[in-house]
Every structure is written in structure tokens, then in C-alpha cells.
Amino acid sequence: MIKFRKLFIFFFAVSLVVSCTRDNPNDPGSGGVNRTANLKSLGSSASDLLNDATFTSMNIEIVYVEGNRPTDEAISNFQSFLQARIYKPDGIEINLRSANSSGKSPFTIEEIVEIEKDERTAYNVGDEIAVWIYFADGSNEKDTNEKFVLGSAFRNTSMVIYEKTIRAFASRTGAPSRATIEAATLNHEFSHLFGLVDLGTPPVTDHKDPENEGHCIIEGCLMRASIEFGSGVVNVIDGSGIPELGDACIEDLQSAGGR
Predict the structure, then answer these.
(1) Over the chain, what is the mean pLDDT?
(2) Beta bridge partner(s), residue 107
(3) By residue range, what is the domain housing residue 97?
(4) Which residues pair with residue 130 across a beta bridge?
(5) Which of 57, 129, 214, 258 could join 253 in a cystine, given CB atoms 3.0 to 4.6 angstroms apart?
(6) Does residue 91 sit within a domain?
């Protein structure tokens, strides 16, 4: 793995996806709600998220632990990112609500799965596809002093953002703003739900990072596995802003029915 002076991982395309998807995926849940379609493997609903062949609208449920609400700026950027990449003629709705702390930090992905069981209320209904995003009040158990996880996509319509970690990083001298990091993490992790890179959406051209599964090798692409502290971060803040998907990743999404 390439080593930098200091490094943070924007994301971790979770290696524990198999254990997550084994977590009783056929249980329809309580109240007659069929949860099966939202308990599949990462990337398996890429086309459904991208195009309007089956689902013409999208309902995104964002649950944040009290005191860990994402910025309005990040949510606005996130919605714009989605609108630029997908076809949902009946709209994209983003709903935010608070929840009590689980008290389980630092988190394993299995613990996030358990929280989803308790807190998720939005599931696919009719021609509306649902996505669940959790803003956690703690860190990932795999964090170190040199690398830390900001978010994880772990099922076909599920992801977690480690908001406490984002806030700690954003407070460092020379770091991007909290809104910038939140938006970049949301956009990146949702792109894993889109099946990038080769996580359900086959690459049109070879741009996979051989050392980091699910990520892009193209310099400057949103789907790079990591970003270097220093000039790279300064460029994000003062230059082009939040990283965007590179041409190769966009071609992949278009091949699956996206924009």
C-alpha cells in the first residue's frame, strides 16, 4: 500500500460485507414491512439506484445521533451530486431525524447492522427505492493514529458516516471544512452503492486500484481510496472544491443506466 506522510482513508469499502449480508436477510421484519430488498450485498442495487426502469423516486433516510447532525451545506451538495448522476423523474427526497446514542463506540460493522435494525424505518415501497444513512457518534474500531475511516457502505442501500471522526479531523490545522469532508464522504460512499469500482457495476475500462478494493486508480477522482495531507487537501479547499468522479467512473455509471 502506498504510504504518505500522513494519510486518512475517506472510506473503507467494507471487507465484512459477507457477514453483514448473512444477518438474517430474509426476515421481513415487524409490522408487515418487507425488508428483504434492502438487505442485499453492496452494489447489487446499482442499476435500481441509477435508473428509472423499476424505481422512479428515491427516499433517503438520514438518522443522526443527537448532536451529530450533518451540515446543511453537505446535504445540499450531496443532493446535487445525486441529481447529476441518476434518473429519478419523481424526485429524490432526503429526510433527517435524530436518534439516541447506542453507546457502542468504537463501532464494528456488525454493531452498525444492529443499529440499522432498530433505527431504520424506510424500505422500498412500490416504485420508490429507499436508502438508509447513519451519522454515528463514534469512530470505527479499525482506526489508527495514521489512518481512520470516515464512512462505510455495507449493504445495497445502507451506509454509515463516522461524524465524530469527521469533526475531529476537520478541527485540525489545514484540514478541509467539516461540510467539505461530509459531502465528499457521502458522495464517495454512495458511489459504492452505485457499484463503484467493480463492486457490482462492471468497469468499462480498467481503472481499478489493485491495492484498494472498490476504488479508482485515476488521480483526482472521488473514488480514490485516500488523499494526502498537505497540498492535496489545500487544493480541495482552495481549488476545485469537493473531488468529483473521474471520466472512467462516470462511464461505468452510464453503462448501468445512470447519467
Answers:
(1) 84
(2) 140
(3) 7-255
(4) 59
(5) 258
(6) yes
Q: What is the pLDDT of residues 29-50, one digit of tens each?
A: 445 578 999 999 999 999 999 9
Contact of 227 with 2, CB cutoff 8 Å: no
Residues 232, 62, 33: CA angle, nearest 5 degrees? 140
Number of domains the chain is built from: 1
Range of lowest pLDDT (13-17, 213-217, 252-256):
13-17
Strand partners, 97: 63
Nearest Cα neighbor of 50 from 235, 247, 254 is 254
Give per-residue pLDDT as tens, 79-125.
999 999 999 999 999 999 999 999 999 999 999 999 999 999 999 99
Total residue count of the chain as it appears in this document: 259
Spatial distance between the Cα atoms of 89 and 52, rounded to a whole number of angstroms:
7
> Cα(217)–Cα(102) distance, rounded to whole angstroms?
36
Residue 2 belongs to a domain: no
**Burial readout 57-71 (b: 16 or more C-beta within 10 A, e: otherwise):** bbbbbbbbbeebebe
Asked, for residue 230, whether it belongs to a domain, the answer is yes
> Distance between CA 200 and CA 42 in Å, rounded?
7
**pLDDT (0 to 100) of residue 147:** 77
Q: Which residues of 98-134 are buried (b: 16+ CB within 10 A; e: fewer)?
A: ebeebeebbbebebbbebbeebbebbbeeebbbbbbb
C-alpha cell read off for 236? 480541495
Strands annotated E in 16-68: 57-65
- The reported pLDDT for the residue numbered 4 is 30
What SS3 state is found at 54? coil
Q: Provide the CATH number for the domain around residue 187.
A: 3.40.390.10
Any domain includes 233:
yes
* pLDDT cut 90: percent of the chain above it: 69
Q: Mean pLDDT throughout 176-190? A: 92
Pairing state between β 7-9 and 226-228: antiparallel
